[in-house]
Amino acid sequence: MRRTVAAIAAEQGADGSLPWFRGGQLDPWDSIEAAMALDVGGEHGRAAAAYRWLAARQRADGSWAAEYRDGAETQPAVESNHAGYLAVGAWHTWLASGDERLVTELWPAVRRGLDLVVDMQLDSGAVSWALRPDGTPDDTALLTGNASLFQALRCGIALAGLAGQTQPDWELAVTGLGTALRSDPDAFADRSRWSMDWYYPVLAGAVTGDAARARLGADWDRFVVPGLGARCVADRPWVTGAETCELALALVVAGQRDAAVEQVAAMQHLRHDDGSYWTGFVYPDDARWPVERTTWTAAAVVLAADALSGATPASGLFADPSALPAPGTADTGSLPPITGRVQG
Q1: Do the Cβ atoms of 276 and 12 come closer than 8 Å?
Q2: For residue 339, what pLDDT is reported?
């Protein structure tokens, strides 16, 4: 894992940016995933630089562009999953490092991003995937992105408790969102061929216990290729490292640790000699595809390894979502004892 973290660090720009690979595109969600892996590997300074790079580029409305290259916006669309995910990174870096100064710096950006997410919530409880050009929320909601936002809102509530603040709008939003994720599939666009829609509600802690195990068991044979990992989409002979390791995180949440270890082991055929990971493998053709080794694929491996091993104080974020404040409550009594000191 130290070699993998070093491989991620090698792709980081001098300005702190964390693209998919050096010279490639950068999107906020995947950059945050890679920053979390740096924190797991003890590279807190690099993780902090990545978070500060993102915070400096947040727009006034709380959004980020969907894509950057060389620091410039190349896809300006406003997408809710990008707006919300800094909350997960900020809570993770607090657990991993206890860096109060960094969390204090990030809190205003987290708050603006989650306020935008709440503004994008639809009547169903689901959150719109993007804003239209006129600034109104699109009517479409995506299941994976919404599950990620469920986790982000809960992390935001935890950070608010750390700041000595309450965010009742976030608590109401996450309650409605959780209900939609668990019981209203019609609230989301049908992307059931994608494995992320299968496991992400479990990974994010929206579906737990017996329901989580039933959900993972129901489509196991559609998505899992024995000995290779998980397909990205059910109808393509293509396994991908990030989806396999995210499935492993969901399996940890569901209490199926042996199956999680098996999946992390199965995808090691994607490992490169330098510790980086190829994105995917088309197994009938015995071919890597796409021909790239992405920071976020390597990051998913690191986060899965941490959740399984409990190696860092941040491992519980993905291993035990119940450690976060319960949706719809303001109970922050279990938070670290610096309440009131992290201010926006």
Answers
A1: no
A2: 38
Tokens of 72: 């410039």
Report if pTM > 0.90.
yes
Token representation of residue 242:
């990030």
Tell me how long the chain is.
Answer: 344
Count CA atoms within 13 Å of residue 7 on its CB side.
Answer: 22
Q: Cα 72 to the chain's mean position, in Å?
A: 23
Q: What are phi and psi of 87, to 5 degrees?
A: -60, -40
Burial of 41 (0-12, 13-18, 19+ CB in 10 A): buried
Single out the residue of 313, 275, 249 nearest to residue 42, CA to CA: 313
Instruction: Assign 343 a pLDDT band (cuts: 50, 70, 90).
Output: very low
Q: What are the CA-CA distances from residue 17 to residues 54, 78, 94, 211, 315 (Å)?
A: 8, 19, 20, 39, 24
What digits encode the pLDDT tens for the residues 178-237? 999 999 999 999 999 999 999 999 999 999 999 999 999 999 999 999 999 999 999 999
Task: For residue range 67-126, list pLDDT tens digits in order.
Answer: 999 999 999 999 999 999 999 999 999 999 999 999 999 999 999 999 999 999 999 999
Domains in the chain (CATH in brackets) are 2-323 (1.50.10.10)
Cα 20 from chain centre: 15
pLDDT of 342 strictly over 70: no
pLDDT at 334 over 80: no
Chain centroid, CA 260 distance in Å: 18
Alpha-carbon distance of 171 to 304, in angstroms, equals 28
